[in-house]
Amino acid sequence: MPDMPDTRPATPAMLHADALTLASAAHHSAAIPPAQLLGRVPGAAWVLLALIAVFSVFGPGFLSVANLLNVGTQSTILLLIALPMTLIIMTEGLDLSIGAVLTLCGVVLAMVNISTGSVSLALLAALGVGIAFGLVNGGLVTGLGIPPFVATLGTLGAAQGLALVLTDGQSVVGISDSIPDLYAGTWLGVPIPIWIAFASYALFHWLLYRTRFGAYVFALGGNREALKFAGVSIHRYLIAVYVLGGVMAGIAALLLTARMNAGHPTAAIGMEFDAIAAVAVGGTTFDRGNGWLPGTVLGVLAVGVLRNGLNLLGVPSAVQVAAIGLLVLLVLLIESFKNTAKERA
């Protein structure tokens, strides 16, 4: 008797397994075979090497150990918000509010610390603000279907306005000495902010490449319809990605406040563009769930080296902003040439 097709309705477990298979396929398609690693290296790597070569010649003291540690320390805050920005962009989203949310978190952290004397309570308050804005961003994008650009542009204005209202446009000073001591401290000769950045990267690497959540992130940008068909809650995972951005903004607020020894209502305004630039420079694209987390680290270092080298040369900050824009265009041009060469090969 011939085998009859299985007409039983799919159970939730079966749908979940199918979704994981589909998402894993999208994830593995982004993996880099060792033989092709060199060809996959983003243009950011070559630009970073070029920047180091140029500034080592023309930038006084650029290659000193103290300055290189300074580059790493100053890049940590940008890395903390560029990591979740990578995941958000991989889901075909965008978060323009993360710089303003970081600023607001820093203001709240400073105010709570001054009023209570507790660093732990201050950090929890900053995390709470970040999570709240992450939930709002995710809800606007997934629940109301508002485009990410428009939704997060609105929350950018809200966060920036709240920071100015809470402080009356003035810096919040008088924080505990232990906060700036954290930024200035070292462990095993390495600045503590670099250790925090390293731990954050390790966590995100594990999340993106070793967990079901990461597999779904790849699929959200590369094969969202398949996830819907398999019964995966797209809204839940999209909201989680934006909440991650809020959490990292709260953690970054601790380092930003420690670095400035105060809560400034405009401290991180515009940093979202540096984060987006670092992600784009690192090779993550705005469609098809194509992202590479190590590339984001390269992009952050490229932006950090560029800013540091231009500072050593006495270049005004306004020109530095233009230079970062040119950096993004240069890397995208390199990637375009690489893709053209692959197509012709």
Automatic annotation (TrEMBL):
Q: Which Pfam families match?
A: BPD_transp_2
| UniProt key word Membrane | yes
Q: What is its main location?
A: membrane
Q: How is the protein disposed in the membrane?
A: Multi-pass membrane protein
Q: Where in the cell is it found?
A: Cell membrane
The transmembrane segments are 43-63, 68-90, 96-114, 121-140, 187-208, 237-256, 313-334
This protein's source sits in the domain of life called: Bacteria
Keyword annotations from UniProtKB, A to Z: Cell inner membrane, Cell membrane, Membrane, Transmembrane, Transmembrane helix, Transport
Q: What protein name applies here?
A: Ribose import permease protein RbsC
Organism equals Cupriavidus pampae
